[in-house]
């Protein structure tokens, strides 16, 4: 077993005593009943509604549109100016929030959250929004992303007598607000956000106000929109992705800026920059895979980015072929771009079963083998005798890609060429996307040729980093995090064990 330490990997390479102290404190976050090998790595969706007579239902609809960002738990908190109600549950948004449940959430303001987490993290206790009765009053909070310095913050607060009820990053933020010496609530929130480091897009609610904020590097998306109201103030909405606005018939207004704290009250919208001077590091993986193609993320349509990734991939590593086939669903847009650029017919040669229940996804090899065939099925008459270019958005461990290549070949393809619409994933994410540690990432431990042999493809090529950045460059684009492709992390703290290659971490 390798020893777990933390150290600075950008600018700080000296594992000084203070850094190691922080390391131990950081790991202190798992002194809860959760096992040591489990991390707080969730991909989440957040929403907020201000000024709507049925805010809970609006939040429900918005969360419904963000279901792809997390399927394990969901929650909605509402406020009516006096009280703050909060209901959370395990499962899909539609399973938890029936009409009867929504009726128990009165008020014109709401925040909501949908959460994915690694197995074992999904306790209802850690579902959000979290409601805390603090010295600053009742506060509900929901957040997307991961903090990287919560260990030291948590230890400091515990020394000050704080008792934590969850292992969630959100509770740290609320406790920092509660313990802030600043004068007003909005100053306390700004003070709290300045102390946390990492990725966070946050929505917060008191009895009469909504707050929305993004971390200073802008890792995770958060957009603001409005529902025009001819008889009074507009309904103001916030959501992780703009596809949520479409379901509400809300108009996209703008993105919450990195380092910005927005407050919405009866008097309108006000904003302040609580932090400045950080280079932007928005998660490029949102464009590669995570966000929906019908969303506008970091000021750019995801569909446009994926189309460009496919076109660039065709320019960089085109191969003679008869059909271009996406691995559905996330590979579809890039495959359309590839096919158009290469002048090769696009065919839906793999069909995804959208009704596969989560119960099939079990950590047992026998069931997992079955799982790929449950999810995907080849269309034999489109593949038989064809030279196939297969387009996917990532290879993580390599085992699933190998099964898909075998499936296409088994359906009669004469050649299978795999093209990946991003560079090799060589490092884990610490900012809210659940990727395995380096020892389990095939590209961290094998060359492209070795991966090709492992997955049994006739050829394999990835999109270059330059090609990916060019594909995602829009007029409002100021900078992306690409750490899972480069190992260069925008923040100081990362878990060294997670970024060791397999040979060194045994
Ligand atoms: S490490 Fe990768 S997945 Fe994580 S924030 Fe950076 S680009 Fe996104």
- Kindly provide the radius of gyration, computed on alpha-carbon positions and rounded to a whole number of angstroms: 23 Å
Number of strands: 25
Which strand order do you get reading across the main beta sheet?
4-3-5-2-11-10-12
Specify the helix fraction band.
25-40%
Number of helices: 20
End-to-end gap: 6 Å
The best one-word shape is globular
Secondary-structure-derived class: alpha+beta
**Roughly what is the average pLDDT, rounded to an integer?**
85
Low-confidence stretches: 1-41, 358-365
Main β-sheet, in a few words?
7 strands, antiparallel
Q: Name the bound molecules.
A: iron/sulfur cluster
What is the beta-strand fraction?
Answer: 15-25%
Describe what you observe in this structure.
This protein has a 7-stranded antiparallel β-sheet. Helix 10 (302-317) packs across helix 11 (332-342). It is globular. The chain starts with 5 loop residues before the first strand and ends with a helix. The protein is α+β, with helices and mostly antiparallel strands. A hairpin with a 4-residue loop joins strand 8 (201-205) and strand 9. The structure holds iron/sulfur cluster. The site of iron/sulfur cluster (SF4) has 11 residues, from helix 18. Iron/sulfur cluster (SF4) binds at residues 219, 283-285, 429, 431, 433, 481-484.
Topology readout:
Blueprint: E1 6-8, H1 17-27, E2 44-50, H2 55-65, E3 73-79, E4 84-90, H3 93-96, H4 99-102, E5 109-115, E6 130-134, E7 137-144, H5 150-159, H6 169-179, H7 185-195, E8 201-205, E9 210-214, E10 223-227, E11 235-239, H8 243-248, E12 251-255, E13 260-265, E14 268-273, E15 282-283, H9 285-290, E16 296-297, E17 300-301, H10 302-317, E18 323-326, H11 332-342, E19 350-352, H12 365-375, E20 376-378, H13 380-383, E21 387-392, H14 399-410, E22 415-420, H15 442-445, H16 448-455, E23 459-462, H17 465-472, E24 480-481, H18 483-486, E25 493-495, H19 496-499, H20 502-505
Parallel strand pairs: 15-24, 18-21, 21-22, 22-23
Antiparallel strand pairs: 1-25, 2-5, 2-11, 3-4, 3-5, 6-7, 7-8, 8-9, 9-13, 10-11, 10-12, 13-14, 16-17, 19-20
Helix pairs in contact: 1-5, 5-6, 6-7, 10-11, 10-17
The protein binds iron/sulfur cluster (SF4).
Iron/sulfur cluster binds at residues 219, 283-285, 429, 431, 433, 481-484.
